[in-house]
């Protein structure tokens, strides 16, 4: 297919340094030349510095962080700043993943602060949004998506041309082995498109991804939805075989 597409691997808190290198060495041996989809690997902060060197070794691959702090610098023990990520050649950063929202208590406002810093930097954001099971059952999905998107973009002036990825990830589909149905994804991605169309994002390129139990069996069906430009993949990105199986379908 000819649309610009992205295959993002979110390794979360998996893979130590040796395992990460082993994975990339395996990826290096695969011929990726036929597929034009962009691969973005998001390893641990610790390994990013060494792994970005693989950009020179594997064509079409890039790297992202799984998070960044909401202040530019200062006394924030244990945190990592936007400029630190820039300085090692990292190009992407995941913002607002549901595990950070739910487990680590990140709010929409924290994510908005991060989004502003990232937008003004050389990094490109991968913003995660999505409703919980309760919100889905209470038919609040569109309200939640609207709040998450509008808050994240609220203080962006959209003067810079940027690639922005928005990953629709229903919380109940993440890591459960049960992806959302094609009908649900189609419907909710349309809602997201409408919300974005009401924001003047000027020359920004906004791409929509789906995430939540994507695997080799459901990838091509989901990717056949017109507005889906790729995937954010957790579990199935951890083995090179299952990741490549998905990648081949987009
Ligand atoms: P999953 O994770 O593919 O394991 O559902 C997706 C994500 O958390 O981004």
Account of the protein in words:
- With about 250 residues, this protein is of the alpha/beta class.
- Helices cover about 35% and strands about 15% of the residues.
- It has ten helices and eight strands.
- The chain has helices spanning about 15-30, 45-50, 80-85, 100, 110-120, 135, 140-155, 180-195, 220-225, 240-245; strands at about 5-10, 40, 60-65, 90-95, 125-130, 165-170, 205-210, 230-235.
- The radius of gyration is 17 Å and the shape is globular.
- The model has no long low-confidence stretch (mean pLDDT about 95).
- Bound molecules: 2-phosphoglycolic acid.
- The site of 2-phosphoglycolic acid (PGA) has 13 residues, from strand 8.
- 2-phosphoglycolic acid binds next to strand 8.
Map the helices and strands.
Layout: E1 6-10, H1 17-28, E2 38-42, H2 45-51, E3 61-65, H3 82-87, E4 92-95, H4 98-102, H5 108-119, E5 124-129, H6 133-137, H7 141-153, E6 163-168, H8 182-197, E7 205-211, H9 219-223, E8 230-233, H10 240-247
Bound molecules: 2-phosphoglycolic acid.
Detail the poorly predicted runs. Answer: none
Strand content: 15-25%
Number of strands: 8
Query: Rg to the nearest angstrom?
Result: 17 Å
| N-C termini distance | 7 Å
Briefly note the CATH topology name: TIM Barrel
Approximately how much helix is present in the residues? 25-40%
The CATH architecture can be named as Alpha-Beta Barrel
Hetero groups: 2-phosphoglycolic acid
Count of alpha/pi helices? 10
Secondary-structure content class: alpha/beta
Largest sheet: 8 strands, parallel, barrel
What's the structural domain tally? 1
Full CATH superfamily name: Aldolase class I
Average of per-residue pLDDT values: 96
* Side-by-side strand order of the widest sheet: 1-2-3-4-5-6-7-8
The CATH top-level class label: Alpha Beta
Global morphology: globular
Reading the helices and strands in chain order gives EHEHEHEHHEHHEHEHEH
């Amino acid at each position: 297919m000819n649309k610009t597409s992205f295959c993002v691997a979110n390794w979360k808190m998996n893979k130590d340094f040796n395992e990460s290198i082993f994975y990339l060495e395996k990826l290096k041996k695969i011929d990726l030349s036929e597929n034009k989809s962009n691969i973005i690997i998001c390893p641990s902060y610790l390994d990013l510095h060494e792994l970005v060197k693989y950009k020179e070794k594997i064509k079409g691959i890039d790297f992202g962080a799984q998070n960044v702090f909401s202040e530019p610098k200062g006394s924030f023990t244990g945190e990592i700043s936007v400029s630190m990520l820039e300085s090692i050649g990292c190009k992407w950063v995941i913002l607002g993943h549901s595990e950070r929202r739910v487990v680590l208590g990140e709010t929409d406002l924290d994510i908005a602060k991060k989004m502003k810093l990232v937008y003004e930097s050389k990094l490109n954001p991968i913003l995660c949004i999505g409703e919980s099971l309760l919100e889905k059952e209470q038919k609040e999905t569109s309200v939640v998506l609207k709040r998450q998107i509008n808050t994240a973009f609220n203080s962006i002036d959209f003067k810079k041309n940027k690639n922005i990825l928005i990953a629709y990830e229903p919380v109940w589909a993440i890591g459960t082995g049960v992806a959302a149905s094609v009908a649900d994804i189609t419907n909710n991605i349309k809602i997201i498109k409408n919300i974005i169309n009401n924001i003047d994002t000027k020359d920004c390129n906004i791409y929509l991804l789906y995430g939540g139990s994507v695997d080799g069996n459901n990838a091509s069906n989901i990717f056949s939805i017109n507005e889906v430009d790729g995937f954010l993949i957790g579990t199935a990105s951890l083995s090179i075989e299952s990741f490549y199986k998905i990648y081949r379908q987009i």
